[in-house]
Amino acid sequence: MTNLVWPDKIPLPTVDGYQISPSEGVIRTDMESGAARARRRFTQTPAKVAVRWNLRPLTYAIFEAWFKHEAKEGAEWFDIELLGGIGMATHQARFTKAYQAKLVRKNQWEVTGELEIRNRPTLTQGALGILLDSELEDLQRSADNFDILVNQHLPTENW
């Protein structure tokens, strides 16, 4: 975790244009004869995430100031909730370059940027093993039934 956290006054990125691009985690060396050799470059492969926000003028002003003063023009790492394969999870991120802002309506800014994330949250090796050995349809049905139980049938007030 980092000391800097994405401010709750600025919404999380939209799904529109959201894209995760993992870095190449393997180096290949072509051999004079025989198969090429491959080796891992990182234990935690960094990734780039294309992000977009639709911000009203006051929220854009907060974003601009936060980027400049807190994120140090994008140089500082910060914690932010981002979507990945395991759902929403806290990621350590920083901007790879300055953002782009475009006025799309009189009172709305479209802000785009690219984040670099490290230590991308994924399933553990144990969880992967369970999923690979299981019937995914049965697991999904059980998860759906559990969600219905918790969110529709259990009492909402404290016991």
Descriptors for this entry?
single chain, 159 residues, alpha+beta, six-stranded antiparallel sheet, two-stranded antiparallel ribbon, 25% helix
Instruction: Label the overall shape.
Output: flat
Mean pLDDT metric: 88
As a percent range, the share of helical residues equals 25-40%
Q: Radius of gyration from the CA trace?
A: 21 Å
Q: What is the succession of H and E elements?
A: EEEEHEEEEHH
What count of helical segments does DSSP give?
Answer: 3
Which ranges are low-confidence, i.e. pLDDT below 50, for 5 or more consecutive residues? none
Largest sheet: 6 strands, antiparallel
What is the CA–CA distance across the termini? 34 Å
Give the strand content: 25-35%
Q: What is the SS-derived class?
A: alpha+beta
| SS elements, strand count | 8
Tell me what the structure shows.
The protein contains 3 helices and 8 strands, in the order ββββαββββαα. Strands 1, 4, 5, 6, 7 and 8 form a 6-stranded antiparallel β-sheet that branches. Strands 2-3 form a two-stranded antiparallel ribbon. The model has no long low-confidence stretch (mean pLDDT 88). With 159 residues, it is of the alpha+beta class.
Topology:
Elements: E1 19-22, E2 26-29, E3 37-40, E4 47-55, H1 57-70, E5 78-84, E6 87-95, E7 100-105, E8 108-118, H2 125-132, H3 136-153
Antiparallel strand pairs: 1-4, 2-3, 4-8, 5-6, 6-8, 7-8
Summarize this entry quickly.
With 159 residues, the protein is an alpha+beta fold. It is built from three helices and eight strands.
